[in-house]
Amino acid sequence: MATLIDGKAISTQIKDELKEKVAQLKAEGTKVTLAVIQVGNDPASSVYVGNKKKACEYIGINSLAYELPEETTEEELLKLIGELNERADVNGILVQLPLPSHIDEDKVIRKIDPSKDVDGFHPQSVGALCIGQKGYVSCTPAGIIQLLKRSGIEIAGKECVVIGRSNIVGKPMALLLLRENGTVTVAHSRTKDLKEVTKRADILIVAVGKPKMITKDYVKEGAVVIDVGIHRGADNKLCGDVDFQDVEGVCSAITPVPGGVGPMTIAMLMSNCVESVL
Ligand code: GUN
What we know:
- With 278 residues, this protein is α/β, with parallel strands linked by helices.
- The chain has two domains: 29-114, Rossmann fold, CATH 3.40.50.10860; 139-262, Rossmann fold (3-Layer(aba) Sandwich).
- Helix content is 40%, strand content 16%.
- It has helices at 7-27, 43-59, 74-86, 105-111, 123-130, 139-150, 170-179, 194-198, 244-247, 261-275; strands at 3-4, 33-39, 62-68, 92-95, 159-163, 183-187, 203-206, 224-227, 231-232, 238-239, 253-254.
- The strands form three sheets. It has a six-stranded parallel sheet. The protein has a three-stranded parallel sheet with strand order 3-2-4, with helices on both faces. Strands 9-10 form a two-stranded antiparallel sheet.
- α2 packs across α10 (261-275).
- The longest helix has 21 residues, at 7-27.
- The termini are far apart.
- Guanine is lined by residues 94-97, 119, 139, 265.
């Protein structure tokens, strides 16, 4: 029977550590402030933004909410980011993605001052990660490293396979595993014989975006399986990219959906916010 990697419990542990740190900073006269910008009212984005605000409240981080209408122009958004970049009382800036199609996401991300880029999406942050320099790291992959470390799973020397090559998850994930001395393979939609590749993995990170695609045929006996996906099935239940019931019989440890990777993303965002004042 596989061990369940409890992202909810581990994220609470991290948030409690941060809460203590923020209280200590407050006592020394330092406040932490995160500006959260949402353009339009995409329902999923509203849920994520709401959860981020709640986490700020729990930890004692001050959050400034900018809920802008769908018709906001790119120029207006860039102007707001410019103003927040200049404000000494704002430590972190987060622009919830996706943005409406008339706004160039790339331009918006580049506008954020890298010293306030708590999402770790700015090219300077990504470049720093690539060459092992200091900078903010994208929250989902950073959270996965914490899940592995805090579950006592060794990364050094392990065969790590990441399925997915997005800028937000797959690519930074591969770089972080490499930084931890894993032997890393990145597989994607054009990979040939995907099962043969994934069956080499001691640690398999799945970010394919397809519900329950990864069955036991893709998994080596005893592997650790991390599921980044989240989908609502026809039965209205949440599921991941991994067919949990099928895979749990062959792996040694696995993250559930919900309650695995998801809560860690927010915990790491909070951690980046605290780091922004240190
Ligand atoms: N949309 C989906 N995930 C994220 C995230 O981690 N950060 C931001 N800013 N937008 C997102």
